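Run log // design_07
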């Protein structure tokens, strides 16, 4: 997976995957009972074609074989998605890992699965976008549906709107896409507003919470709990697929949100609990965005893996010394001492009241008004 590399100055550095894997190993997550680590594989053209067109796949191969042949109309060779040798194979390998995870749920060999290298949610059917070449999230959802799963809920908590995944399932009533992200008024890709609710055959299948810039832990978790559990329960999926981009963290330079490690861990715990309540625990989790490669990404995704393994890592757990030494020697940076940040993640339940003068509450209410009635829910009280 480390071959997915747009170059040394690009934010999407493969170092974040290497450091995450090493931290998880040092924490003992890979050695936990019932945890298995599967080798990734390159997704086949026919598997990629369940989401992307043959012409687009051919274009990715062509540009990957000769990076001088950029194709900006398809988003290849742009500033966000620079061309690099082996682009097709590296991107298809990320997708193959998510397909392997989906297959484990389908076969029953796993109830929870994680591909922290995946979550490429901006890629559309015909175009790369936002550091994403192939949309592995959409491919995993499609694989689940093709296996006979009747409904899938896709929950995206990346700081950026999950536009590619939403677009792919825009008119498919079998898929509920929920995206909790910074407003498109202040952040790429400029989409994901409350009035985007799905196509004519699938009204209510797309749900968007466009958070105001500066939203911190309490507001972020308030918004999540005011929208996500109610709609997932009403939709009744057989599997939850989630994308855990951690670029909403206050120290990430590519967004303007203000969350902590602790809040993102809390959201992962809530999604895992929702899977237990609604779909027998069947849960496939992915990584996504996240560009603070030392302080944020490895901790958030190690927490995610530990939660999926049924052994959450306490926030006051010391970061393993060997990992900290590696970071200092390899990257010349001081790593954090603890797995958490001692953040105050208290959030105010929606049931205690709605404040129309608060921008966060107005955002949440706009989403609830747009979608809740389509599920027979009251936007004020449910």
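design_07 sequence
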């Amino acid at each position: 997976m480390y071959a997915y590399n747009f170059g040394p100055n690009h934010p999407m550095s493969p170092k974040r995957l290497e450091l995450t894997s090493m931290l998880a190993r040092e924490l003992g997550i890979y050695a936990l009972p019932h945890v298995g680590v599967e080798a990734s594989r390159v997704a086949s053209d026919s598997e990629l074609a369940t989401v992307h067109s043959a012409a687009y796949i051919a274009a990715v191969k062509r540009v990957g074989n000769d990076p001088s042949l950029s194709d900006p109309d398809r988003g290849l060779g742009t500033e966000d998605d620079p061309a690099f040798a082996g682009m097709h194979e590296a991107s298809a390998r990320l997708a193959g890992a998510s397909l392997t995870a989906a297959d484990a749920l389908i076969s029953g060999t796993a109830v929870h699965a994680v591909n922290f290298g995946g979550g490429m949610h901006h890629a559309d059917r015909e175009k790369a976008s936002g550091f994403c070449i192939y949309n592995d999230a959409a491919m995993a959802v499609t694989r689940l549906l093709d296996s006979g799963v009747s409904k899938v809920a896709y929950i995206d908590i990346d700081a950026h709107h999950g536009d590619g995944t939403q677009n792919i399932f825009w008119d498919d009533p079998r898929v509920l896409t929920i995206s909790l992200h910074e407003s498109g008024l202040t952040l790429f890709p400029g989409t994901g507003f409350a009035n985007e609710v799905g196509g004519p055959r699938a009204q209510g299948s797309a749900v968007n919470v466009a958070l105001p810039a500066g939203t911190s832990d309490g507001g972020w978790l308030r918004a999540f709990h005011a929208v996500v559990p109610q709609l997932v329960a009403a939709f009744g999926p057989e599997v939850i697929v989630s994308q855990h981009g951690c670029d909403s963290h206050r120290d990430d330079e590519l967004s303007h949100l203000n969350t902590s490690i602790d809040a993102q861990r809390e959201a992962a715990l809530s999604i895992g609990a929702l899977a237990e309540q609604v779909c027998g625990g069947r849960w496939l989790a992915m990584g996504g965005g996240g560009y603070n490669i030392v302080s944020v990404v490895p901790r958030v995704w190690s927490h995610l893996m530990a939660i999926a393994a049924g052994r959450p890592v306490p926030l006051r757990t010391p970061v393993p010394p060997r990992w900290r030494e590696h970071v200092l020697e390899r990257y010349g940076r001081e790593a954090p001492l603890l797995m958490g940040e001692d953040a105050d993640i208290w959030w105010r339940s929606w049931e205690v009241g709605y404040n129309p003068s608060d921008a966060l509450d107005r955002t949440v209410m706009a989403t609830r008004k747009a979608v809740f009635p389509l599920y027979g829910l009251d936007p004020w009280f449910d």
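The chain has one domain: 15-44+87-375.
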